[in-house]
Amino acid sequence: MQVPGLIQFDDWQDIYASRMETMRSSAVRDLFAAASRSDIISLSGGMPDIRNLPLETVSKVAADAVLKEGVAGLQYGNTTGREQTKEVVCRLMKDLNIEVVPADVTITSGGQQALDLIGKIFISKGDLIITEGPTYLGALQAFSAYEPNILTIPFDEEGMKTDLLEAELARLVAESPDGRHGVKFLYTIPNFHNPGGVTISLARRKHLLELSHTYKFLIIEDDPYGRLRFSGTPVPALRSMDANVVYLGTVSKVFAPGLRTGWVIAPRPILAKLNLAKQGADLCGSALNQVIVEHYFNDTDWQSELDKMIGLYAKRRDAMLEALEHFFPAESTWTHPEGGLFVWVTLPEYVDTPQMLSVALDKGVTFVPGDGCYPGGSGMGRNAMRIAFCYEEPKNIREAIRRLGKVIEERMELYRAFMDAGAL
Ligand code: PMP
Hints:
CATH topology of the largest domain: Aspartate Aminotransferase, domain 2
Strand order of the largest sheet: 2-10-9-8-7-3-4
CATH class of the largest domain: Alpha Beta
Number of strands: 15
Bound molecules: 4'-deoxy-4'-aminopyridoxal-5'-phosphate
Number of helices: 13
Number of domains: 2
Largest sheet: 7 strands, mixed
CATH superfamily of the largest domain: Type I PLP-dependent aspartate aminotransferase-like (Major domain)
């Protein structure tokens, strides 16, 4: 019997699949325990601030879901999702000039399941895929289970540097014996990137699509944050410009992540493969959650709830950017998001953010060290961090940035002292 609190040795080490060697726990998930301490100011989690959602409305929606739909929400459903949920998705997509019908949509358990299914149907061990670097660590987790090689392309304030992508594609073709680049797909988060906060400009979107035609590779457009814009002008979705792009959406950041409802829009042959993979994964998603989502988007003024949330995030982003100007050393740089939840900070090369995290925790602040947002073993991102402005009040954000700035200054001073002493 396992005694609670005692460490149990893993006697099963020899039988795990080789893919477990490349799977890493997400630093963010690991941080959740620390972040829930009441004395901690958390800049680590990307949790939407749903504390102001009108619970009366939501509970009415949930009650309606059961009373009006009967047992439909309690029964097994289609693998691809409920027709009515897909209709809601089609409506949401129309706002983005993406014209689709329910047969183009599969409902998934959050965007996260879509990432896993995409990995499952496209990646064989050793296949090459391309992502932004840094990228969403949950995507790295999902894809790495299928053991790909991951090539990363950096971004700047205009999003992914497509000129570098073009150079990499040309290099891959030139170096390959059969003249093929071998890229299975390119995964991108074009709006308010996680962790980057940046948005791909229209010119670069066009360039990216052009490259996908010239070099023939599939684009996966992951868009959980597109509706969370506080300033600037919206940029068209890649999928609205090219029907061969696979588009991933979710209600997590516009309603509630607890409902685990996302969707995939893909060309029909790809969707058929994805649905096959989904059957083996879960038979079908939660029908009850889908019914709740339908009623929320059909029967309530969800947009005005979202607008309130966006108003909060805008104030918090402003507080964060102002505090960074004030408290972070001149040698650091950061992104200036026009929406979403995150800022990406780059520090002098010698500041090691994974090491710095425990010191910051001591000072009551959490953040995500940048190395977790790159493929394992790349060694990149150790002087960078993701800080989220979505969950704390402006005054806490300011205080957290003040404390972090101090921790960084101290580490820089230490480095300079070592340098002066000739110790490094
Ligand atoms: N993609 C990105 C870029 C994300 O940041 C997240 C969640 N933070 C997801 C997908 C998955 O979200 P969910 O499963 O809640 O839809």
